[in-house]
Structure formats: structure tokens, C-alpha cells
Amino acid sequence: MKKGMKIVTYNVNGLRPRIQQYGSLPKLLDSLDADIICFQETKLSKHDLRADLVRAEGYESFFSCTRTSDRGRSAGYSGVATFCRVKSAFLSNEVALPIAAEEGFTGLLGTSNGYESRKDECPSIAEGLECFSKDELLKVDSEGRCLITDHGHFVLFNIYGPRAVQDDSERIQFKLTFFKMLERRWECLLHQGRRIIIVGDLNIAPAAIDRCDAEPDFEKNEFRKWFRSLLLQNGGRLLDVFRAKHPDRKGAYTCWSQSTGAEEFNFGSRIDHILSAGSCLHGEENQEGHDFGTCHVAECDILMQFQRWKPGNTPRWKGGRSIKLEGSDHVPVYTSLVEIPEVLEHSTPSLSTRYHPQVCGSQQTLVSMFARRQSIEQVISEERISPLFPSHEKFTSTPENYDSKASQIRVLGSRSNANILPSIVAKKKSRHGQGSQLTLNSFFQKCTRSETSDSSSADLKICQTDISYSQIDLNGVPSADDESGPSKDCRLNAIDNIQNEGQLDACDSDKEKRKVALQEWQRIQQLMQNTVPLCKGHREPCVPRIVKKAGPNLGRRFYVCARAEGPASNPEANCGYFKWAAASKCKEKGK
Fold first, then answer.
1. Angle of helix 417-435 relative to helix 399-414, nearest 10 degrees?
2. 3-class DSSP state of 230
3. Which of the four, 106, 126, 404, 542, has the lowest number of CB atoms within 10 Å?
4. Is 330 an annotated catalytic residue?
5. Average pLDDT over residues 493-499
């Protein structure tokens, strides 16, 4: 039986924030509605592979994570993941379920298939890469940038290409080596008669039409020249599926700068690609005019509905800067395949996250639940052994207090073990809080000694009360023992008046402090407005920035136009104004 299938590639700029954005991993996957979903820049380490991040019902998943910390890169840097929507992970003939899977592309990180695991076999260098040393291969393959899944009729490469800026010679060489090795792997598979599909963020905009601000020499870049040399129209073997379907579409971008708000004016680049190569599946002897892309690719397009900037959003310079834009700085790209036959029955490869130790461990909830329950019950038993009310917090056994404490004990005893500990902690906190907020009246309330209470504790309270009375007596206020009837009422009223006056004074003091703070903040804001320059293009306040790139200006502050980056022909876009904060010298960037 022949079926259609949909493949999506999406640089998520962190899998965790995308899951939080959609509420759960299944909701994120379902929003893309595809049979195979390839994520790049997952930013997960091996230790982060928990069930809620990597497993979803109805999907088999495969991950590759960074294994190096070179150049300050953390274990959560880059990373790719492939999710395959299947009805069954075992004895299935679905094309979406891989027959085999490989982390990386050098062969040294391990391969697995659906028939038997190769964990006991020593990893060997992949065919076509024997000319490279093992150290070279491992260095390139250690950043979690590639996953290969074999789907029978085609081999799928999920790739996150390295980024290299002009003045970083080390990363430029790394990127050259990375793609040189990949090309050899592709060529080897094609030589074997296999079909390949390459998807992902390659970090290369191949032609001027794929970049918003392409300069005249844009296409002379060595990576762009290499990319175009792979394409069919230039004598290569790969089909740029999107350009094959939309050869003249301009402004078809997949990535925008977050820091400059470039999405607002669609000022981006097309660096997320779907490429294919190989023969069609029709099996005709005369293959002229037949290839996988021509015969089996129905459509390919960019899913612009996933863009962070939505039509109708308030522009940045009109108050929209405070609006939080959710989503990645990339958007997904998809392709639909047709007439793809089923494959022989097979099971999910052992590289699947269902076999990852941490994922399996997180699903053993009964063991962890009993372990947590045991530790809680131990703490509760210790609380029961020790006095519920410590000696320094003994209460006087007046009928009212006795009934109150007894009722608290009864309530605590009737609660479940899970709720006892928090309630005890809360009551302790409340008692300490009450003790630190005594009012003047509390010093004149005599404590009645209890026959059942600790005598030393009661003596201590009486002593404290006597000291309070003596202090008041020294100030000319009669002691409580000498008072009765109206005189006592007068004293209490006087105390209430003193306390109320104290509270009013405190209230007035707080208001005065808030007023002073507000005036100071207004003064700072006014000072900032006076020192922030106005951009030359729009005469609007600039926004401050700080240099984060290593070099002589690292940490230095500067000002730029507040508007979003856009084409020079659009007067509403950023005017290119620039000024150092600590120098009078300013400069305008030509647009």
C-alpha cells in the first residue's frame, strides 16, 4: 500500500521553552501535524533527557546531544531530535518508523537498528570517511549536530549546521570540515543507490534571493558557493525542494534576528532547508526525467503561522517593546511526500529514547513514590516523638487555650501523613510570627500559671510581665495590681490611644518614604531622558546596548535607533543611528 507522509524541520531555539509555550510536548508535536518532525537547537544535555521532554504517546524519538565543552560551550549547547509519529513501535511496516538510527554521521557514536542492537560491537568509521583521523571525526561529531534515520525507501539526515562569523577562523575551519565530511557521507550513500533527504538549519543562505540585505558579493562566500555546487541546476545531485516549488519567490525567509526585531519588516534569511537526491520509487527502466524529488515531492513551504511577530502587533517604538513575543527565531519548513510504499515489518531501533536509562527510570514511579513516602513518614514519626509544643512555647491552660490546643491536636491527628508535616511547619511559623509582633496591650495581660504547665516556663513569663510593669511604673503609669474598675479602663484606653498614635506615625513615615522614593525615581528618569540621544532618522529616543563580543570594546555601552531592523527603502524601519555612551564621537551606519 502506498501512502503520503509529511516531514517538518524546525529550529526550536530550545526545546524546553517551546514545550512551555504549548503546554506539553504532545501539544507541540500535534501543532506541527507531521509524520516525521526534526528539531534543531534543542539545547538539552544527556542529563536533561526526562520523559516529559523526550517522550510523547504515539511518537518514537531520537536525540543527539552535545558531548563537548570546548570554547565555553555547555553540555546543553546545540542538539537535534527526530520524532516519528507511529501507530506501533514494534513489528510495524510504517515508513515513519526508522529501520535503523545513528547518532552523528561519522559512525563513531554508535548505530542501532530494529532487528538487533549493535551495542556490543565496536563503532567503526563510516564508509567514505576513512581519510580522516578518529580525533578529527570525533571533534566534528561531538556537538550533537546530526541524527540519521533509515526509513527503508530513504535515509533522513537531521542537521544543525555550525555558525561561523567572518573573524573566527577556528569556527570557519570547523564548519568547512563539518560539511566536507557530510558531503562524503551523502556521496557514499548515493553511490550505493540509496535515496537521501537532508533537512535542518544549515546556517547557509545559498543565494542573494535568500537574504534580505544581500550585498553584490554575497554569493562569493565559500559556504554559499559550496551549497550551490551541490544542486542539480549546477551539476550536483541535490534538489533544493523549496526553490524547486517556488523558484522566484522573494522574501521567503525562515530566520530573523531577535535582538533587532527584524520579523516586523520581514528582514531575515532562508537558512532552513529540505534537500533530496536519488531515484524515484516507480522502478521503471528508463529513469530519464524521473527522480525522487520530481516523482514523490508534492509540495514544500514555510509555515509562517509559527512566526513570533503577528500582524496587528504594536510596533516596538510605539510601546510594543514590552510585549512578550513567544516562539523561536525560526519558523518550520515542511514537505509532503506521495506514493511512498510500506516497508517490511520492523521494530524501533535501540537508539530510541524509550530505552534511555534516565527515561526508563523516570517511568518507575511506584519505587520513587514509596521512597518519598517512607522519608516523609520518618520525619512525621520524629515530630510525634518530640513535643508538639516545645517547652519555651508552653501555653497557659486556661479553658479557652486548652480547648483551642486540644482541637488543634485533634485536627492534626485526623489529617493524612502527607499533610501533617506542612501544617506543623506552618503553625510553628505562625507562632513565631505572632511572638515578634506583640502590641502594647499584650504587656499588660497577666499570665495565669497553669498547674499542668512547666513551672520554670511560667516563672519566666511572670518575671517578664513584672519587668514590663515596673518599666511602666517608672514612667508614671500605675501597676495592674493597684487598679480596679474605672481606673483600669482609663489606663487601657490610654494605652490604646498611644498605640493608635504610634501606628499613625508609622503610616505617615511610610507615606513619606514612598513619596521620597517616587521623587528620586522621577529624577532618575528625567536624567536618563536628558542623556539618551535621539536618533537622526526619526528624532526618537534611542535604546541602550552593551557589547557582548570579546574584544577591546567588551562591556562598553552604546545607543542605537529603537525601531526594528528593516530594508533601507522603508522609512519606518531602523535608521541605523549609533553612538557610544561614554564618548562624544557618534556614527551613523549607512543603509
1. 150
2. coil
3. 404
4. yes
5. 60
- Distance from C-alpha of 176 to C-alpha of 186, rounded to nearest angstrom: 15
Q: Give, to the nearest 10 degrees, the angle between helix 365-385 and helix 417-435.
A: 50
pTM of the model: 0.69
H-state helical runs in 33-68 = 51-54
CB-neighbour burial class of residue 583 (10 A; exposed 0-12, middle 13-18, buried 19+)? exposed
What is the side-by-side strand order in the sheet with 36-40? 59-64, 80-85, 36-40, 2-11, 333-341, 297-302
Active site residue: 59, 77, 160, 577, which one? 160
Q: Are 244 and 252 in contact (CB under 8 A)?
A: no
- Each residue's pLDDT tens digit, 207-251: 999 999 899 999 999 999 999 999 999 999 999 999 999 999 999
Helix/strand/coil for 9 = strand
**Does residue 129 contact residue 83 with C-beta atoms inside 8 Å?**
no
* pLDDT tens track for 505-537: 667 788 888 888 888 877 776 665 557 888 888
Q: Is 561 exposed, middle or buried (0-12, 13-18, 19+ CB in 10 A)?
A: buried
Residue 92's contacts (CB-CB under 8 Å, 6 or more residues apart) are 86, 345, 346, 347
Q: Do 336 and 6 form a contact (C-beta atoms < 8 A)?
A: yes
Alpha-carbon distance of 301 to 134, in angstroms, equals 39
Question: Does 115 qualify as catalytic in the annotation?
Answer: no
| 507 or 498: which leads in pLDDT | 507
- Which one is catalytic: 48, 141, 150, 201? 201
CB count within 10 Å of CB 414 equals: 9
Cα(307)–Cα(327) distance, rounded to whole angstroms?
7
Domains annotated for the chain, with CATH where assigned, are: 5-111+124-355 (3.60.10.10), 525-590 (no CATH)
Residue with cell 509559527: 306
Catalytic residue among 153, 330, 356, 538: 330
Q: CB atoms < 10 A from the CB of 348, how many?
A: 25
One-letter amino acid identity for 105? Answer: F
Q: Which three cell numbers stand for residue 253?
A: 525567509
C-alpha 57/C-alpha 512 separation (Å) is 60
201 as an active site residue: the answer is yes
Classify each residue of 32-58 as buried b or exposed e, where b means 16 or more C-beta atoms within 10 Å of its C-beta.
Answer: bebbbbbbbbbbbbbebbbbebbbbee
198/9 Cα distance (integer angstroms): 10
Q: Is 48 annotated as a binding residue?
A: no
Q: Are 591 and 575 in contact (CB under 8 A)?
A: yes
Q: Is there a binding annotation on residue 11?
A: yes
- At 308, the amino acid letter reads R
Q: What cell was used for 435?
A: 511572638
In 178-246, DSSP assigns E strands to 196-201, 239-240
Contact 65, 26 (CB under 8 A): no
> Which amino acid type is present at position 143?
E
- Consult the annotation and say whether 330 binds a ligand: yes
Question: Rg for the chain (alpha carbons), in Å?
Answer: 35
